[in-house]
Amino acid sequence: MDKKEIEHLAELSKLKFSDDELKSFADDFKSLLELTDIVKDAEINGEIGFKSIDMNALREDEPKESMPATTLLENAPQVKNDCIVVPRIME
Q1: For 26, 51, 57, 74, which has the most beta carbons within 10 A of its beta carbon?
Q2: In sequence order, what are the beta bridge partners of 79?
Q3: Gap between the Cα atoms of 31 and 25, Å rounded
Q4: At what angle do helices 19-40 and 3-12 cross, to 10 degrees?
Q5: Beta-strand (E) ranges in the chain?
Q6: What is the pLDDT of residues 4-49, one digit of tens each?
Q7: pTM of the entire predicted model
Q8: Closest C-alpha among 9, 34, 6 to residue 20
Q9: pLDDT band at 50 (very low <50, low <70, confident <90, very high)
Q10: How far apart are alpha carbons 73 and 79 in whole angstroms?
Q11: Contact status, residue 2 vs residue 33, Cβ threshold 8 Å
Q12: CB 10 within 8 A of CB 16
């Protein structure tokens, strides 16, 4: 990306930058794009890529006995009518 493209993006984003900042951004973007080309062309030698991993694998639900309410209330900083008192967040 050159300075002109950065200026265009800044204008679309309603951001204002100095000439030095624009040049710095252009240099940074150029470095990032070069890095993505290196990663894109990297050989993975049969290793598993992210696309082949099931990222939504969930454990099976197993019902378990819950903690007794009395134990929970014993550890609460403040209790009223068998409920844990928490600070009010809305008026």
Answers
A1: 26
A2: 84
A3: 10
A4: 100
A5: 79-80, 83-84
A6: 888 888 899 998 888 888 888 888 888 888 888 887 777 666 665 5
A7: 0.39
A8: 6
A9: low
A10: 7
A11: no
A12: yes
- For tokens 């967040």, name the residue: 89
How many other CB atoms are found less than 10 A from the CB of residue 10? 15
- The Cα–Cα gap between 71 and 79 comes to 12
In one-letter notation, the amino acid at residue 8 is H
d(C-alpha 35, C-alpha 31), whole Å:
6
Across-strand partners of 80? 83
Do 82 and 73 meet the contact criterion of CB atoms below 8 Å apart?
Answer: yes
CB atoms within 10 A of CB 26: 17
Q: Which two tokens stand for residue 88?
A: 């009010």
